[in-house]
Amino acid sequence: MNTPQRIVSLSPNVSMMLFALEADEAVVGRTEHCLPAIEQYVTVWNMPESRVAQGLPHWRELPVVGVWPLADAEPVKALRPDAILTSGSGPFGVHDARTLGVADDAVLHFDTRTFDDLEKHIRQLGALLGKPEAAAAIIEQITARRNDILARRVRLPVAPNALFEYCVCTQYDDDPERRVANPAQTILVGGHLAPELIRLSGGEPLLMQPGETAKWVTIDDIRGAQPDVVLQYDCHGCPAAGKHPVRTRQGWSELAAVDRDAVYTLQENISNPNLCFPAGLEELVNLLNTYAAQNP
């Protein structure tokens, strides 16, 4: 493929990378979530005001062609893209090229699950856009930021096993018809970057390994594994989830982590495989440092 001149980004995570590569002018369309993702990236990385002023207005004015993982075919076609960039794992975020009016090789899909994937995809985008040096510089910045955070990590003689309960809100919607699972029976364990971030922070991921996306487990699985730490993330701070603290849930009071109050609600989505991971890594290091101080 030649260097694209008219890119439609159907992925907030890819849009962050495009912004980081300063490829703004080549982008002609985005999803509704791309702009908030870039604004989050700007905050997490404390981007210079000059760069923000240079690139963000362009993204604000771009036509919106869907909400990830979906896209509206006709608005995409109207933009006459020569490249469409998508992302997601499994069926999420996958789009048919012909439906969007482009050749098969004009749709590039990024299934980012690990740090190796993230770096590989940054390099791929850099090569595609004729910006390999910029891609290499971003990877150097990632490494330096990660090492700076890890320098503040407290190491325990034995890494605590950490269970990461993801998307708590999907199980506790006020309307039972909108719940995707019975929380008394199944719990969603988050993957993508989460296992690596937990391990980097000094813990050991429980019931999930690097490269996996998400997994439904039972409370019996969790009781059998007996996590030292329970980490929870509500996708959008769902108020329904907040009405169901772990002590009130069937079987959870039998966990040692619950008994010693080693249950932490995360503010950052440590599962999301994108350039904003330093915020999640920093939060995890701080939480596990707290755990280390309370459990010497």
UniProtKB/TrEMBL annotation:
Ranges of residues in domain Fe/B12 periplasmic-binding: 6-296
Task: Cite a single Pfam family from the UniProt record.
Answer: Peripla_BP_2
The protein depicted here goes by the name: Fe/B12 periplasmic-binding domain-containing protein
